[in-house]
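Why do we bother with a discrete structure alphabet at all? Because it lets us treat a fold like text: something you can write down, compare, and reason about line by line. To make this less abstract, here is a complete entry for GTPase CgtA. Read it the way you would read a sentence in a foreign language you are learning: slowly, and without expecting to understand everything at once.
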Amino acid sequence: MSNCILLGKPNVGKTSFFLNFAEFLGINRCTLEFMDFEGNAVAKHYSVNVAKNYLISASPFKTKDVCKIKLSIPVYKGRSDFLLHDTGGLMDGIHKDENVRKSMAETLKYLYLSNIVLHMIDTSTIFTNQISTMSEIDYQINKYGNSKGCYCILANKMDLSEGEKGLAFLKNKFRNTYILPISALKGMGFGEVKQFVARNI
Ligand SMILES: Nc1nc2c(ncn2[C@@H]2O[C@H](COP(=O)(O)OP(=O)(O)OP(=O)(O)O)[C@@H](O)[C@H]2O)c(=O)[nH]1
Ligand SMILES: [Mg+2]
């Protein structure tokens, strides 16, 4: 089964996309499999709405464990299953908090194991100085993603007024990368993400 990873800086909207995209693909209940730091799988069952309340937050580093959900997409005459992995936010350098360092190590392990890479960048904070603001780690993910193939940038938060300027900046910086403008909150661009995954599954 294909493994698709969602990664990027903290607070860019990964978990919002993870759950709203699952809902878009027809899922209303989910079994989320979390991996704790020792690598043990812990399964928890939620309705997608409860999961949203529990897992999405305006404060950074809300997601610390890699969390996966099995999804299905129509391809040709049938359907294809794939696993979508939500991950903890990545930061530049070596973080002072050990839990964040462990979470980042876990994310990088899954990046290595994934064959489809969705790299999320917050278009609304590109010209600011916030935790979600694009930085060196995004250039490194881009380099790695392009070398691996089946990689695209999800330019998120396009529903916000700063989004268009942020998207123009990304298109200029990452000329060789497929960039999909989306809003994880409003469901904008989900059809295009679905097509991208279906082509690479
Ligand atoms: N306006 C707007 N806000 C969004 C969008 N996507 C996410 N958010 C908000 O951004 C904040 C962070 O969202 P999360 O989905 O928890 O982000 P994350 O990348 O999973 O964050 P970590 O788990 O901490 O790394 C929340 O307040 C969301 O409501 C979007 O498309 N538009
Ligand atoms: Mg999260």
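What the structure line is telling us, in plain words: Strands lie at 2-8, 29-35, 41-47, 67-75, 78-86, 116-122, 151-156, 179-181. Residues 2-200 form a domain with the Rossmann fold fold (CATH 3.40.50.300).
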